[in-house]
């Protein structure tokens, strides 16, 4: 009885032994498998980071403001300088302009708004406290203009304008509001106490010339 059982199982043992491609001790351990998986994940993350477009966040440390532009828009290098930047929607006739201007005497925010609004039609808006204005207008050439002006502590002004074709209002009005909402002002570098960390500048941040 015992001899029959042994004879029956011997071919099975031989089959299992022959089917094993490598000794058990040569198989990768759980730690090795985990390390390999982590390495593959890290490689995939690095590739994804390299494939990601440049940041849409613009930070001007020298002038003290930052803004986030719509995805896919391109910087107009020829129209940008140390005081601000222009981004455009390629082929759509829309653009965003964010610029800083130094304090001009004792001009009030209301006077500055009037100056900026000259030549525009249908200007309407509201003052948000003493140092901010939000409004809309038409440039008289078939374009709508969304405006936001913020007065900094030293009296300088950051002016943001989002211009887009009137016929594309449904597409751009919400985008304009979101973009202007992203505008933030902070103390310019020259007014920041030494040793205070400045906001991290994005890759496309302006550098004075």
Quick structural gist:
The chain is an alpha+beta fold and 209 residues long.
Q: How many individual β-strands?
A: 10
Strand content: 25-35%
The biggest sheet, with number of strands, parallel, antiparallel or mixed sense and barrel status, is:
7 strands, antiparallel
* CA-CA gap between termini: 98 Å
Helix-strand pattern = HHEEEEEHEEEEHE
Q: What is the CA-based Rg, rounded? A: 31 Å
User: Could you give me the name of the CATH homologous superfamily of the largest domain?
Assistant: Mog1/PsbP, alpha/beta/alpha sandwich
Give the name of the CATH architecture of the largest domain: 3-Layer(aba) Sandwich
What is CATH's topology name of the largest domain? Answer: Protein Transport Mog1p, Chain A
**What is the mean predicted local confidence, pLDDT?**
77
Number of domains: 2
Q: Which sequence of strands runs across the widest sheet? A: 3-4-5-9-8-7-6
Question: What form results from the Cα inertia axes?
Answer: extended
**CATH class call of the largest domain:** Alpha Beta
Helical run tally: 4
């Amino acid at each position: 009885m015992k001899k029959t059982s042994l004879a029956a199982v011997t071919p099975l043992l031989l089959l299992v032994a022959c089917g094993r491609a490598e000794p058990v001790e040569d198989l990768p351990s759980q730690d090795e498998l985990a390390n390999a998986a982590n390495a593959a994940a890290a490689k995939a993350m690095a590739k994804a980071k390299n494939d990601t477009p440049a940041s849409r966040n613009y930070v001007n440390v020298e002038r003290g403001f930052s803004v986030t532009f719509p995805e896919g828009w391109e910087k107009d290098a020829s129209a940008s300088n140390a005081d601000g930047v222009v981004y455009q929607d390629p082929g759509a006739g829309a653009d965003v302009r964010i610029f800083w201007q130094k304090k001009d005497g004792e001009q009030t925010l209301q006077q500055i708004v009037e100056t900026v609004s000259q030549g525009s039609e249908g200007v309407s808006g509201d003052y948000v406290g003493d140092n901010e204005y939000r409004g809309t207008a038409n440039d008289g050439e078939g374009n709508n203009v969304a405006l936001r002006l913020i007065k900094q502590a030293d009296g300088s002004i950051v002016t943001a304008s989002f211009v887009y074709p009137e016929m594309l209002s449904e597409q751009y009005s919400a985008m304009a509001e979101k973009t202007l909402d992203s505008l933030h002002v902070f103390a310019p570098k020259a007014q920041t106490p030494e040793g205070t960390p400045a906001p991290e500048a994005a890759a496309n941040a302006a550098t004075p010339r």
